[in-house]
Amino acid sequence: MDLRLKGVSFLRQHKAVLTDVSAVIPACGLTCLLGANGAGKTTLLRILSGELKATSGEYFIGDIDASALSQRELAKYYAVIPQNPPTPPYLTVSEMVGMGRFQPRRALWWHLAEHDRAMTDACLARCQLGEFRNRRLDEISGGEQRRAWLAFGLASDKRFLMLDETLDGMDIFAKRNFFQLLRDIASGGKGILLTTHDLDVVSEFADRVIVLSGGRAVFEGAPSSSLAHLLSASSVPDGAGTVSRREAN
Asked: Is the dihedral of CA 45, 199, 186, 149 positive or negative?
């Protein structure tokens, strides 16, 4: 059940933010969305999650026309971790990850059942957070908080995980550890879409790359040695140069 975008465009105040974006995000694998600031990465994620509606074009989850679904309906398929998620100081790591099991339709009567606790424990272990489970979120490091949010997304047990620039502030060792964790999770059967500009770790760990430049998809495929040149060329101001779309071998 891959995600498929077909000609997705978005206008903001009559200005093109995304233009005719077509791409495939596999249901299993780590896909990285690359591009300079302002390239349209976050806007594309907000469209996929239903927070924004595309001006034109469509996208599908398998054979389902997702562009016609509401944000609540799309939430059945996606767990979205924003760029700067809040850090509730009154929650422990375990409590926050457990909130990933929340079911809105049972809001008034919801509680963590035994299978929810088992899922929470498994996600804490998967994200190397067992020793921090009883620590408050504001008592752990930024990298540990990001792993806690990843565990929260995993606990929700959605088809896709979408993460928006969650690596900012991490040193290179923490980034490599986080990317390795993402790749391990993706290889276990999860579709992950991560927006980032960390080319070195992307080239090493990503299964697939989509590059946005000026709101257009200019590259889609496996990481390659030409990505650095492509990103450098695509960071020029609109109109100063062009990059042709091509598929990596």
From this structure: negative
